[in-house]
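Hi P.,

Sorry for the delay on this. The queue was packed all week, but I finally got your sequence through. Input first:
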Amino acid sequence: MLEIQSLLNSIDRQIQTNKGKNLYYSDRDTLFNFWEGNNLLSNRHQLAEILSDNSVREGLIDYTLSKVLREFFYTNQYITVNERDKSILRKVYNKLISELSDQQISLSDISSRHFTRLTTWLSYSNPHIEKINHNDKKSVAGVVCSEYSAELQLELLNINPGKLLEPILDIGCGEHAHLSAFLKEKELNVTGIDRLLIKKETWLSEISWFEFEFKPDNWGTIISNLSFSSHFLNNHLRADGLFLEYAQKYMEILKSLKQGGSYHYAPSLPFMEEHLDKKTYKVDRKIINKNYQRTIITRL
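Then the structure:
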């Protein structure tokens, strides 16, 4: 009898099998395949019995979505997935599990249908990804995200931990939360948020900045190094970018500062900063090098 843990292991191996492959490759059906040792496929009759339990079925889908989204984010940091996108992707994997439970459909047909649906979903939710992944390339064009030491971030953003106004929010803190952990060790009141977290602590939250509620007049200091503003800039420069959504969230972030609070970030966003009310916000922008600027905005 198939065990749940065995199924979860099979999902992990399946994702690993297709890691780094380009969904837009011209001969996708020869590139993407099911892992041959996949226990999900070894006994489809038993699989159908297990998945007749809705709680088990939903649990497997939840697990798969979490793993797949992490793989997308690792591959390209500028992939954005909202709740609507997640709901549609959930239907993609619900359909896959339904077809795997139906022994009348061949595995080759299931594979072709699934990866076609997955490609369609990606093109719908993130059309810019198709533009950078040419159909003659088997490997995906990655745009990976790097993590930086706490010391480097403090230097780049001109932050003195002893002078920070609390509470502190680290937006896009990174999966290891280096800076947030450093500040926590200084016994500062800090919260770190990121959509990918390895470090699990009560003061860390695995959530995207679009889902996070920025309450007005709440934060003494907000920090985001090569995270929110980098994504904002990327969307600003793209014809299909979410410029309006980012602009609205940017203003939410500023309004969530307490009076006297500050927002430290890089890269700078001069196209937004120059339009801020000078009676409400003080803008301090500094050129670090010819390609890099950092900004500190203080709420007056």
